[in-house]
Amino acid sequence: MKMKKLYSISISLIGVLINTCLFGQQVQVTSPYFQNPELLIDFADDCAKFWSGVHDPTYGGFYTFVNKEGNATNTSEKHLVSLSRDAYGMTRAFMLTGNEEYLQMASSSLDFIDNHLWDENYGGWHRSSNRSGSSPRTGDKTAFDQHYALLGNAAFYEATRSSNTWNVIEKGLDHMNEVYWDDRTEYLGYFHKTNTQSENPNGKSFNSTVDAITTHLYPLYLTTGDQQYLDRLNILKSNMIEYLVGSMDQSVIGFAEEFDSEWNIDHSQNRTIMGHVLKTAWCLGRIHRIDQDNNAINAAEVLIDDVLQNGYDHIYGGPFKDYDRTNGQMMMYGISDKAKAWWQMEQAITSGFILFDITKDEKYLQMTEESLDFFMDYFVDPTYGEIYADRAQNGSKIPQWGEDKGNDWKAAYHSIETAYYAYLYSQLLLKQEGASLYYNIEASNTERELLMNPLAIDFDKLKIQSVSLNGENFTDFNRDTRIVTLPANVEGKLKVTYIMEGLAPISVIDPLSSPTVTNNISIFPNPTKDVLFIESKTSNTSYRVLNILGNLEMSGTLNKLRDQINVSSLKSGIYFLQVDDTTIRFIKE
């Protein structure tokens, strides 16, 4: 398995030191995804193709339970959270690629949610139903489910500004405000759950608090600029700092995640999840980008530093999973090796990006780089596509847990969101080049000013570089305020290119300077343009080259211990070289 690579900072030369003093900090990074962020668009596209295979063309939406090969294993159930996560992922895939088929599938998933899972009697969304949606499952309702019902809708609204989608969002928000919001001055926050009748709201939790930010409140503020969302974000910021971070002095690692209705810690629940700690830091950093509250960023640093010190793999990279916060012991769940989860890797990537952007502390970028490389090297399935849910510390399979790709928790969300944010941050913050996104805006009978804020970043430096509408140059936009003005009755496909201005330079090192090595083979250069040199321990052995979807591109025999193959005919992208029982990733430029 690949060991963690060295991470270097270019402050050794006098000239660089002077440049640092005058113009800000310079760092060097070596990840191929930092050097070629477009690879992340390819990855998102491949993930979307995987999920396209389990879209239900008859009743709409997506099947929930999907095996390693991409086949639906249970076609009789559909689940709210996975449907919304699929809609989110397909929407982001459209925004990255411009493929409108992905947007259409996202729309069908949201239609299924609204048409079949909304509780017409008591309000709120049911958690699941049969395939057709004719028999929704009744039972207790949670803030987690209600928040995530809005995840796909908020992303779809950003991409389309659809009035129908906005109506669904308002319906969901009204229900959350009426039923789940605790407006008692001393206990402000979202309740954790209600009964079937949307009565007896009780409890507070990480999920009821932080997931409100990521699923809808933050994206809705970026899309609308409406003060009501910022006001709610500021209350939740206080909740995170006072109750989540505030419980850390009673924890060996992490924080308390469940509370009663008055924010007293539920001591019967001791699990702390590293992904939740990192996600809280990410949310605090995102809110800081709006209001510049130093308390938020100070708390975010405390959170990430706790993970780096107590719950992070400094050998292979990436955060570990879950711990007992009272004694610091890792929860093993019946396995013998330490484990990492797909979605927790994303939280390390996104929180590391935003903390580096704000603080310029290289350790956060190092965490991002290590986690992203581990994610792409070991979570991505080179044979069937998409990502596994869990990997062992060194990236190997955890046999007891299987390798299914979809369930009522795992869908298209985290894989494609990782690609989305990693692409934007790498392109804008590190490479400091234009990053383009697509939107498919519906017509309106009045002129509209569209606020374009694709991510949390230094908004003073984020500009619109160019806009096209239906393939033609479009000039009615304000580059500094990032407002695109569309006349009445105009619709179509926008391509908006963003750029950062006034940033300190970042040096991205070409990884061609060192070979990629596993236990059995090494390859050089990586990335490559034409010839890939291979050194193996045995001669006269067969090899195969697979694309990211697992399709065979090349095969042959390595006749010598040191041999080479010509890959110039391959399209640019990520590929996997298989030699005997060893698989190694390489990039074709």
Automatic annotation (TrEMBL):
<keyword id="KW-0732">Signal</keyword>
<feature type="domain" description="Secretion system C-terminal sorting">
    <location>
        <begin position="523"/>
        <end position="585"/>
    </location>
</feature>
<dbReference type="InterPro" id="IPR012341">
    <property type="entry name" value="6hp_glycosidase-like_sf"/>
</dbReference>
<protein>
    <submittedName>
        <fullName>Putative secreted protein (Por secretion system target)</fullName>
    </submittedName>
</protein>
<dbReference type="Pfam" id="PF07221">
    <property type="entry name" value="GlcNAc_2-epim"/>
</dbReference>
<dbReference type="GO" id="GO:0005975">
    <property type="term" value="P:carbohydrate metabolic process"/>
</dbReference>
<dbReference type="Pfam" id="PF18962">
    <property type="entry name" value="Por_Secre_tail"/>
</dbReference>
<comment type="similarity">
    <text>Belongs to the N-acylglucosamine 2-epimerase family.</text>
</comment>
<dbReference type="InterPro" id="IPR008928">
    <property type="entry name" value="6-hairpin_glycosidase_sf"/>
</dbReference>
<feature type="signal peptide">
    <location>
        <begin position="1"/>
        <end position="24"/>
    </location>
</feature>
<dbReference type="GO" id="GO:0016853">
    <property type="term" value="F:isomerase activity"/>
</dbReference>
<dbReference type="InterPro" id="IPR010819">
    <property type="entry name" value="AGE/CE"/>
</dbReference>
<dbReference type="InterPro" id="IPR026444">
    <property type="entry name" value="Secre_tail"/>
</dbReference>
<keyword id="KW-0413">Isomerase</keyword>
